[in-house]
Amino acid sequence: MSRRRTHVLRVDLSTGETARERVPRDWRRDYVGGKGLGARYLYEELSPGTDPTAPANRLGFFVGPLAGYLPGETRYAAVTKSPLTGGFLDSYAGGEFADRLAGSLDDCLGLLVTGAADRPVRIEVESGRARIEASDAWGADAAETDERFPDAGVACVGPAGEREAAYATVASDGGDHHAGRGGAGAVMGSKRLKAVVGRDPPPTVPDDLAKLRDRDAAAYGDDPTGEWQAAGETVETVDYANEVGILAAEGWTGTGFDGADDIGVEAALERATGREAVADAGQGEGPAVPGGFRIDTPDGEVVPRGAAPITLGAGLGIDDFDRVVDLCGVCDRLGLDVIGAGNAVAWAIRAGEAGVVDCPVSFGDAAGAERLLESIAAREAPPDLDVHPDLPDALADGIDAAVARFGGADLVPTVKSMALPGFDPRAAVGVALAYATSDRGACHRRARPQDTEPLARPDRSPTDRVRDVVGEQNARSVLWSLVVDDFVGEAVWTDLGAEWLAAVDHPAVADVDRGGDAECEADADTRSDPVAALATTGERIWTLTRLFNAREGFDRDDDALPEPLRTAAADGTPGVDVDAFDRLLDRYYAARGWGDRGLPTPAGLDRLGLAGVVDDATPLDDRPIDLAAAAESDD
Length: 635
Prior knowledge:
Blueprint: E1 7-12, E2 17-22, H1 25-31, H2 34-45, E3 59-62, E4 75-81, E5 88-94, H3 96-105, E6 108-114, E7 121-126, E8 129-134, H4 142-147, E9 153-156, H5 159-162, E10 170-172, E11 177-179, H6 184-190, E12 193-198, H7 207-222, H8 224-232, H9 237-244, E13 248-249, E14 254-255, H10 260-263, H11 265-271, E15 274-275, H12 278-281, E16 293-297, E17 300-302, H13 307-313, H14 321-334, H15 338-353, H16 366-378, H17 391-396, H18 399-406, E18 414-415, E19 418-419, H19 429-437, H20 453-456, H21 462-482, H22 486-492, H23 498-503, H24 507-513, H25 524-528, H26 530-551, H27 578-592, H28 602-608, H29 627-633
Parallel strand pairs: 1-6, 7-12
Antiparallel strand pairs: 1-2, 3-4, 3-6, 4-5, 7-8, 9-10, 9-12, 10-11, 13-14, 15-16, 16-17, 18-19
Helix pairs in contact: 1-2, 1-24, 2-21, 2-26, 13-14, 13-15, 14-16, 19-27, 21-26, 21-27, 24-26, 27-29
């Protein structure tokens, strides 16, 4: 297998054609792979206004240039136009499928799928080639689909994706891993693509890269983040969020949940039969950090992540760990995003309580929540579930769709139609800024002020909040273009991966070292310093996704604070100050060099090498907000 990835595989499901094509060197240099390269293809090839579930939409399965070599869990990026938000979407998953996809792609950076089949199919990837095969698995859930391919890695849609639920996932490894947020599974289902199958084993790591991998894996094991993950994986976040006062509970009616201890890390440690094995996590021999907790249930093994106790537990008022894991298993098998599905059920409960729509399910009712989840995936309610007959279908299209059908806009918050993770920004306004400005809708991973701000209150200034959010968004744009396990990358890479990229002579750093220049007005430090160049790459990629969304009609109005967060919660938690948030948003735009509509400017595009990329259909602001004026208005 080549240690340099220079191609993509294309599959047109409408025509049945497959092809290999070389990725332009300047695209690899300026966008690297993963998120960045996926964004570049989407912006280049997708016409504005394209229906996300139409054949013309693209669905990319992208890896990074070092896929299969890096420390931590091998991951891939699903990149598409979201059927939930109507904007850019990148969603990530790790595990065996990601490992095998890295090996099966050979010298390719991804698989780019267009068109739609006239019958259910799967795509098999092997030795750097792709082929289309008929699929007889339509109707099977994620676990059942995976069982059909015991000697391969499988990413598939469950029943929710087949019915194009707007937050359907791409489920892999039988539902243990998901490219979860934003509805990539709905796009996959609309293409009648049941599964992508990676046939080859993971790549063999060259000796020089193995030394780097082992060094960084060991360093991560000794890092506080690695120790935290080893002790409690992300399940521990429910304990943390409750302790620091940012855990949203019972449909965003308050912060803090009395039953958090019963559904957190201690419960997981007590119930787990083990942790994800080395092969499953793709971490090589003797990994420093184990994977998630394996929990046996009557319906099979489930590996709950942190979103399960937060959204399906505290968010639905359920303090029984076993029942939370059961609900997680339902989502995993059906292929529903846990955060989107849990919030949809919470909205239905609150809407029922408020008389907005008929819904007999209540907080704490695990059995009722399970029935509603199954109804959402099916887009219809069984005769014995006494809900409004249109409710499951509306909820399958997202909370905003249900609000448009029934009302209840003030119940459960969304940003760009995406439901929020369970970290309540009413208790940490930096989290509100991170949610509002996220390129894919409400996301707790693009920037993570929830990790620091609650512990630093009241010492966080507006300058601190904006600096952290902008810096983390840019840095993660690089890490997610490398498609590294971002916990590992953040913890041990102070150089944004420059040393690793240099080891494979990647143009993102090689062209800098050799004096080559991107199509940008970079300063001398950026032209000569690979780390500075990668920092600019992160900003370039983040700006490109903003251009994509702007072309789809997004602007400042879509970065607004959602209505439920503007007012006090039922338990008295005060709402976010709207005027203070707007001033914070001005500071954010000023820091990015964007204008008052939240759009990039021609000068900024020149600096980032995007002036030759942007098209006439993309609106821009004429000039950036003045940083001094924005700061003065906030003093």
